[in-house]
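Encode chain A's predicted structure.
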Amino acid sequence: MKFGDGFNVIASKDGCTSSPTRCPEDALVQRSDDAARSISAQITSSASTKVLAFPNPYSDHIKFNLKSDISGHGSLELYNMIGQKVKNVFQGYIEKGQVRTIDFSVPYSLRTNLVYVFRIGDQRTTGKIINLSK
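Encoded structure for chain A:
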């Protein structure tokens, strides 16, 4: 995960004390550009669920590779940048350890920057997809 300048790591399970770009996703980081208004953010990710969305940036087509360490009913949803759900791309059974590939032709009306949310069981993985034309 990449962060812009002005952030320092303040805590990590593995004792990481370097820049946030070199620490695990569960590191606690703190904005350092204004100590009087320091902002903390807990970075969390479900390590057992993974999503690869490509190409990113995209133009009219996105391929999603979904993988989970548990079997069960999963869903992949797309949201616009103001948080409105715009499409349920996948809903169905995910086999533990198997990659499920979803091809999605993006309708013209949805071709904007999007956020995906992959859920299975109590796990959730999110990411951002950038549109080339925006």
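The domain at 49-129 is CATH 2.60.40.10 (Immunoglobulin-like).
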